[in-house]
From TrEMBL:
Top-level taxon of the source organism: Eukaryota
Organism: Craspedostauros australis
Protein name (database record): Chlorophyll a-b binding protein, chloroplastic
Manganese keyword on record: no
InterPro entries: Chloro_AB-bd_pln, Chloroa_b-bind
Subunit comment: The LHC complex of chromophytic algae is composed of fucoxanthin, chlorophyll A and C bound non-covalently by fucoxanthin chlorophyll proteins (FCPs). The ratio of the pigments in LHC; fucoxanthin: chlorophyll C: chlorophyll A; (0.6-1): (0.1-0.3): (1).
Amino acid sequence: ASDRAPSVLNGGLGKISPIYWIAVLALGAGVEVIGLKKASSTYPDYTPGDLGFDPLGVFPKTEEGKKWFELAEIKNGRLAMIAITAFAFQELVTQVGVVDETPIFFKPLGTALREAANAGYIQ
């Protein structure tokens, strides 16, 4: 694979500073501590993943809406895991980085649409 994407398969993750990984670990641990505190008996209505951050107020108020939203979030996370696994498998099989193999995903939307129109894909 290329050096354009820090893939697990091409050893690129080792090129990132250990300080970054320490910061990521500390941030993740901090979020987990907040979640564990909320999951305790102090917050009996706690839902895993709900840290109370909803500045736009999009989380539904009804029980049915909450259940749908929670299920949608789980499905979204699972789809993201499948997608990143597919990208990693694609790099393994083709020996070409995902950035080089699928450049349309790594361009600004306006540029991608203009190129598609110039190629005749969009009328």
